[in-house]
Structure formats: structure tokens, C-alpha cells
Amino acid sequence: MDEQREASAANAASSSSSACEVSERQIGEVAVVAPSGVVDMLTAPQLEGAIRTALSNKPAGLVVDLTAVEFLASAGMGVIVAAHEEKDDGTKFCIVAEGPATSRPLKLVGIADIVPLYATLDEALAALDS
Questions:
Q1: Which of 60, 78, 81, 101 has its CA 20 to 30 A from that of 109?
Q2: What is the pTM assigned to this prediction?
């Protein structure tokens, strides 16, 4: 019985640690999708849904802003790669990431080599505008 309680407590702790909120907004003709918190296998579908919604509107550009992400797991990186591959040819795509929790993993696995990476949203918007 104690083992069941410990397992339940461990499950509750792990599910509460996977918290992610995703905001979406439009800046001119650019869609900005900004997750916050933890992007892992439990929360990556939220990010994927927001990106798909943004892309369905055929924006001129899409920015995935990871500024408020505390942890980016491989599932989140997979969503970004899939979005890059599925986007319309007329849609420019980039990522905002700075620091060890986001830009470092994106650089280590090579995603930064295929998707432009910027330190700030302003830099990303300026690059998409040029």
C-alpha cells in the first residue's frame, strides 16, 4: 500500500513538473508562437497544435519564441523540425532562443544549422522583414 502511495506521489510530481503554456499572436504578417515552461513529450503536442494553427493561416513568417522555455526536450525539438519541413515555401521560419536551456540543445543537435536562430524576438522580426 505504501508503494502505491509513493508511486502516486511520484507521478503527481512528474506531471506537475511538465507545465507548459503556449501563446500565439500576430505581429504584422508574422505569426509568433511562444511556449513557456517545460516543452517535453507531455507538452510538445500543445506546441505542435499552436504551430499548426499558425501555419494554417499562411503567414509570411513564423517565429517560435523559446525565450520563456525552461527546458526543451527532444520531443519539442522534433516539433520544430517537423514544422520547418511542413511549412509552406512562402513562409519564412525562425526560432528565438538564448541560453543553455534552449539555444544550446538546438545548436548541439544541428537544428540551428537548418532553422535560423536569433537571441531576441526583435532580431528575428527584423530578419524576417528583410
A1: 60
A2: 0.85
